[in-house]
Design the sequence.
């Protein structure tokens, strides 16, 4: 079955710097990759997602890139702000997934230092 | 925006009690899910439901059951709570289409003493 690895497990950056979190997946048939942000005391919130027919997607300061050949995808946050501090999870979705087969990465704790 | 509401943020129960965790979504989503989240173990799927009165086991269903009598409501039941069920419980919903994103509630932190 699918396996998702996520690195780094913790990341500290200075405010204004960029942050990059990388995930790798094992099942080449996976075709949908969402990213979630979980703030302290809250549930995960979808922040961006990408499908396998697209190589890159941007939404303001957040971007996701996908390399299907290498089976990895990355989250890029530019001009980081203290409110970006949270745990970020990537996920991979295999074919025919109606929600029951998402495989999540273990999470990255991002700290943005003022 | 989709809103998934879990009725309790914190619960403290005693071993052996029957525990009900309630979840309501307001976007007419077909699918609903219960996860538990534990440090070092990530998100693990307990049960899910594609439709009213339908339920399917996830990866860790032992010790749990669910109920979906209405489309918008999905309940998780711990028949006899045990200390190893102390955890953060997350409810989620999604559209009934392939590869639709999950929308999570804010979680219920359950402590069983």
Sequence:
């Amino acid at each position: 079955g699918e396996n998702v690895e996520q690195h780094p497990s913790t990341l500290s950056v200075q405010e204004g710097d960029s942050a990059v979190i990388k995930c790798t997946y094992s099942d080449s048939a996976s075709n949908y990759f969402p990213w979630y942000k979980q703030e302290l005391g809250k549930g995960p919130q979808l922040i961006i997602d990408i499908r396998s027919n697209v190589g890159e997607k941007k939404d303001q300061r957040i971007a996701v890139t996908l390399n299907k050949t290498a089976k990895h995808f990355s989250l890029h946050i530019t001009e980081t702000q203290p409110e970006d501090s949270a745990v970020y999870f990537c996920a991979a979705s295999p074919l025919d997934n109606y929600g029951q087969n998402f495989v999540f990465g273990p999470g990255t704790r991002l700290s943005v230092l003022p | 925006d989709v809103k998934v509401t879990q009725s309790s943020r914190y619960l403290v129960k005693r071993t052996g009690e029957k525990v009900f965790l309630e979840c309501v979504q307001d976007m007419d989503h077909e699918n609903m899910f219960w996860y538990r989240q534990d440090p070092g173990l990530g998100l693990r799927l307990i049960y899910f439901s594609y439709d009213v009165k339908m339920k399917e086991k996830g990866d860790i269903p032992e010790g749990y059951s669910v109920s979906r009598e209405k489309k918008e409501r999905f309940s998780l039941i711990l028949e006899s709570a045990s200390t190893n069920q102390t955890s953060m419980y997350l409810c989620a919903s999604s559209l009934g289409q392939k590869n639709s994103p999950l929308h999570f509630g804010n979680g219920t932190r359950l402590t069983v003493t």
Remarks:
- Residues 92 and 104 of chain B are 4 Å apart (CA to CA).
- DSSP finds no helices and eleven strands in chain B.
